[in-house]
Amino acid sequence: MWSQVLFLLLSGALVRAADHEVYKNCSRVDVCSQNRELERQDRFKVNPEGAVFGNGLASFQVQNLDETEDFFLNITAIEGNIFRLTFEEKASLRYHIQDVLDGEPTSINFDDVQLSLTSADIIVGNDRVTVNYSPLSVEFYENEVLQFVVEGDRLTLQNEELHHPFTFGVTFPQASYLYGLHEHADHLALRTTEPGGDDPYRVRTMDDTYYELYSTMAMYGAIPALYGHGSTSTSGLFLHNAAELWVEITNQPAGGPGAYFMADSGALDLFVLLGPSVTEVVRQYTYLTGVAHLPPIWTLGYHQCRWGYADQQDVQTVIAELDATDFPVDVIWLDIQHTQDMKFFTWNTENFSDPFAMLQNLSSTNRYLVTLSDPHFKKEEGYFVYDEAIANDYFIKNPDGTPFEDECWPGTSSWMDYLNPDARDYYSSLFLYENWNGTTPALGGIWNDMNEAAIFNDGNEKTFPYDIVHYGGVPNRDIHNMYGYLQTMATHKGLMDRDNGTRRPFILTRAHFAGSQRYSAFWTGDNTAEFGFIPISYSMCLNANLLGFVFCGADVGGFFDEPTEELLQRFYQAGAWLPFFREHANIGSERREPYLYPEEVQKRIREAIKTRYAHLPVWYTLFYEHTRTGDPMIRPIFYHYPEDQDAFQVDDQLLVGSDILVKAVGESEVESVQVYFPGGDDLLWFSAQLDGTFYPGTGFTEIPVTIDRIPVYYRQGSIIATKQTSRPSTTDMKDDDYTLLVFLNDDLTASGTVYIDDNLSFEYRDSMRYNYLSLSTDGTTLLSVSIDESNNEGFDLVIAEIITVNPEKSRDEFLDLKNPYHHFRVTMSTHQGLMARDNGTKRPFVLTRSHFAGTQRYSAIWTGDNTADWGYLSVSYSQCLDANLLGIVFCGADIGGFANDPDVELLQRWYQAGVWLPFYRAHSTSGSMRREPYLFDEEVQQVIRNALQLRYKHLPVWYTLFYEHTRNKDPIIRPLFYHYPQDTDVYRISDHLLVGRDILVRAVAEAGVESVQVYFPGGAEEHWISIDNAEVYDGNGFVNISVTIDAIPVYYRRGSVIVRKETVRLSSDEMANDGYTLYVNLDAYNKATGTVYLDDNTSFNYVDNKEYNYLKIDMEGSDVTLTKVDEDANSNGFDFVIDHVVVNKVIKEPENGSFGRYEQKLYTKDTSQELLKNLKFTFDEPAKIKLT
């Protein structure tokens, strides 16, 4: 049997549409064909004398004018603007479904009941329900506006022994369009289906192979909820019934759109949702049916799947290849081939012989596995599940009481009866680690497929016959649509029990019903590799989100057939913006893992996946907010712009939350697409590329597109929390810092939220261990406030950078779409916030990773997440020199490398090189070994200590250079060509730098070297004096210099005065009042010159009040002259105190390629020297010191 079925699937590419011989239309199904054109007739009237009111319940006796059975109309008021109506015969045989509602809704008392001869009015708050006696109808008003009507002239009830069909009609007087009746591959706004046109929408779970686009045919899911939305209000209904349903959508211009429900069986149990907004209707529906719990965060990453990963080596290879080609991924999936002969809860002993090892391997890379578990079980004595189910009566039965059998993947099979609580418990127990051999927590999720149920028997539309019997004698026709729901409920319990409730389960289901969102995610089923299936995935998932089922996605690339490279890229780009993001393909399709494609294709797919991972904080926060409010994660435009009638039918775009607008590209080879921008002229939408483009919310706009990406925009006024460091998986990103994207309103305000917890457990729910933050700015200060008094310890919001988009142009210029928004200023808001915090009295320090022209006004930068590799040490000089030439002078690199672990030699060399970059910081990732200097051997500590002390001794040099940069814009560190522009040999030297003009440094960026080539610039007349020995070199180019691990080559320029502080203390603050030491490097004429700058080190008084001392130092012969550069500067309190003068004088000139020598004399107050120690100079006039 298996080979026959496989052949059919492999050859299925020849079939391009659903088989209409197998799948019936309305004319072939009794409940639809017999009722669709039933004449409207006033069959019923209320007997007012039989009405009963009390305890929030109104019960009306309704007489059937056809002299058939009377019934009761019961109306209950439920908290939150909801009403419940039931229509029930006196001797009802109807089945009432259980376990679907999320607990029994809370009923409330009526405020008033007003009776007249023709009607009864029930008053609850601002709502009024009017029951018209004859002809029967029920009208629902909100604030005295008619919102919803149940039409008595379309009501029928048949109470037969084996069959209980009913019909009813409703209208939505305030609505423009109707939405809901999930699941259909159709537009979001339901279309009219009156006789002569399309079939009514069929609501029945079934496996519609090669399902058609824009069709009313039934599919895998069945949610009998319907909303009517108009520009002034929204209302809705939920039919609490799991039988097959057909719904005609009607257009009644005088009374708004309507719907005619034709149900095959069960109870007419109707909830009316009175909104009055679309947000409130969604929340009312999720109040009834529940919300999802927060999933483990890894489920929001990228999932790699296909029907056909044949063995555990294949699994390992796919993950390794994705890692090698830099594609983040969190999950790999196994279809039915992982089982032994397609028997669930077994492993294929040949191809998956060591599942424990496979799972351990996945766990070591922070990845998870998801496996398939269908509801059918192979008929085979000796198969433990089958034997146990037969012995305990756990299978669905035929009407004669025998186990129901039919054909599916294993051949002859039986189906677990999940309506039976004992069968559910047994099935749940199979997931326990002790019952499923080889499983570990790395088996993170379960895939419930084929649970409509799907059967290989065309006679019953490839699903259950109507008359097979479930637990308690319930025929399948009464609960058909909730069968898959019941399986996921049992699976969820199994995973909860398996981990003792400590880990959040993940389940993906194909079949689903109202309430399925509490237990599972779902996908849009077996789609096809065609462009039309891209926009339909948005429409289908938007519909599901409105009906509470938020965790939705579509098979990226298409399950059936082969996508072109263009189509595959577009699928990835669109799929990255659906809550569930999985690539999946049929066993007969070609392998399509991203790494198999040309590099240009890989690049685009990689960008789509990495964009997804960068926005994981957005997805996780939205999911948490759904658990609080029931709000959708993705939303149609009208959800936030309910009055914008032009947006009511837009369904190839979506909003991620309220702040990200995405347009799917669902056509081939297009160069532009129509994007709808909502919100009006006063709202701007900024390109997610941060390339300066933006558009006002004035409706459809033609947007150019390339194959590189699809249109994505951020809303003005939003704060978007992202993580910009690319990692292999979500687990690897856990401790990464956040980057906030701030898009300021015209009044410079913006707001957002972010949610943080442990990503895996239920402690967020059970112990309130989380941090949920409100983010806001007024343009100067960023404020983050915890929304709840939760236990947020360990869940800090650590911000790496803030990117602020601030439109500075006038409104007229905004409308020129070719005009960029002038500057988007990296860290500007942070800088302004720190300034405001201290009232402008203290100089802020901000470090940013992302930067742009002008960044230097607000922050320092570092070279980002470098790696513990020698090449990264060398390139840090190149990167910071480049930045200095472009004005961003305050630059450094993570000492030791952020990622991976440096060896001891590399760490020492990095400390030595980093001394001579303006920003000096050791930093590493959480996964690297601790590398604080004190953790190393004493010899290593001493080398690092010497480097640090050298940095602190030269702090006056750095501080003076920084001040001079504020005056003249010169770089702090400079490439050699900056001062020697005619020396063509230096143009490409990037492992040397000049600190200012006077200090030459050469990084040692190779392991184990005993010498390096140092380039000495300036020609024969320029000399360079080593700071570590008495050697002097002329500026005639490269010289091979011996090095040890103790130091790197550093030289002072002859003719310079270097101002240092020789007493090294624990911090720069503690050195503030120490005296200075002058290192005077005399030239051939016994002259030298330098500068030094002093102020209070912290405030803006140097700018605002000119409180500083800036000195020029000149030496000639034995005289040192100190001259105040700015005579009007207020230098009181900034005396220049000299402790020592060190004079370096060349005594042997370098010549013929050999180095020279210098001697060093120290002048200080002791028994042998004449220079007085602690000379103080107030500089009312130039001061002189004579060295003797």
UniProtKB/TrEMBL annotation:
Pathway membership, UniProt? Glycan metabolism; N-glycan metabolism
| GO terms, molecular function | alpha-glucosidase activity; carbohydrate binding
The keyword Secreted belongs to this UniProt entry's keyword annotation = no
Q: Which GO terms describe its biological process?
A: carbohydrate metabolic process; N-glycan processing
Source organism, top-level taxon: Eukaryota
Family classification: Belongs to the glycosyl hydrolase 31 family.
Species of origin: Tenebrio molitor
Q: Where in the cell is it found?
A: Endoplasmic reticulum
The alphabetized UniProt keywords are: Endoplasmic reticulum, Glycoprotein, Glycosidase, Hydrolase, Signal
Q: Do you know which Gene3D superfamilies this protein is assigned to?
A: Glycosidases, glycosyl hydrolase (family 31), Golgi alpha-mannosidase II
- Glycoside hydrolase family 31 N-terminal domain span: 73-248
| A Pfam family annotated for this UniProt entry | Glyco_hydro_31_2nd
In this chain the Glycosyl hydrolase family 31 C-terminal domain maps to: 630-720, 970-1058
Where's the Glycoside hydrolase family 31 TIM barrel domain? 293-622, 813-961
Task: Provide the protein name.
Answer: Glucosidase II subunit alpha
Span of the signal peptide: 1-17
- Which Gene Ontology cellular-component terms appear in the entry? endoplasmic reticulum
